[in-house]
Structures are given as structure tokens and as C-alpha cells.
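Reopening this one. Same input as before:
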Amino acid sequence: MIPPVPSGTRLLGITGAPGAGKSTLAAALRERDGVAVVPMDGFHYADVELVRRGLRERKGAPETFDAEGYAALLRRVRAGEADVVAPMFERDLEQPLAGAIPVPATGTVVTEGNYLLLDEPRWRAVRAQLDVVWHVVLDDAVRIERLVERHVRFGKTPEEARAWVASVDEPNARLVEACRERADLVVELS
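Same output, byte for byte:
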């Protein structure tokens, strides 16, 4: 069951390990409650920048995101600014796209991403903008299989997908799960 969004919430964060169901839960809230959704994935650095920084093989790790830009956008949303347009992540291209998601000046906005509760300065600035954060959990075997299937769907071989999950997604999952106790609510999905 999907919990109700707390009354008066402007920014609801949904976090959880890669593949736990954050996007699925956010989409269900959009469908049920009409909330706007701003995914953290739009703040991925583009591959060209990841290569410049020597981080391409760690894409998805905390340091491969523009956390400061994400926090700045959330501050604008919290302030109710008009004409805020957020980036999105285009999975077919595996790249962020600027100016793709219009964000309403009023109402609840859901933002979902792995590192909303990470205890590092640049990520604490993100958490400071959120009224409530839910942490999503899913059986690890199911979560990992979904991740492998997602990577295959977007172009990796099954072997490449399993290797990526083991070397990148699972270390990131351990970071995210270590922050679980900072969540306002833990939501178990199936």
C-alpha cells in the first residue's frame, strides 16, 4: 500500500537503493495524487564531464551528480518560484536533458533519488530542502534482478549488466542503505 503524502508537504523525497522502486512509487503518487515529480537522475553529469573527471566507470555514484545544482533547484521549488524547469535523465541516451520538466509553483513535488539522505555536505544541502523523506526497500534478489534487466533493456549484454550491478550499483546500494535510519518513513515494496 502506498502511504498518504503528509498534509502540507511541499517537497517529498523518495530514496532507496538502485532498483528499489523509487521511480515506480513516484509515478504511482503522480497518478494517485497528481503530484509533480522531479527525479534526481536529471542531475547526472553528462558523459563528457564524467570522462573529464575520470568518473565514467562510476556513473551513478554520489560524485557523478551535480548535487549543488540539485539543491539549488529544490530551493527554487521550495520558494514557489514560477517558471522552474528541471532536467530529466533520458535512459535511451543515458544522458541528462536540461529544461525538460516544468515544476508547478504550488502543490506537492516529489523528488526521488539514491542520495537524498547521504551525510555529506553537498547532499545535506539537498536534504535541507525536503519536508519529508521516505526510504524504499525491496528484497535484494528482486532488486538486483530488476537492475540487471534494466541495464540489458538499455543496451548492455547480460554479462555486462551483471558486472555493472556488482561493481557500481551494489556499492552505491550499500551507501544508500547505511542512511536508512535518517528517513522519516520506510516503505517496503514487493
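So the earlier flakiness isn't reproducible anymore. For the record, Helices lie at 22-33, 47-53, 67-78, 121-127, 140-153, 158-177.
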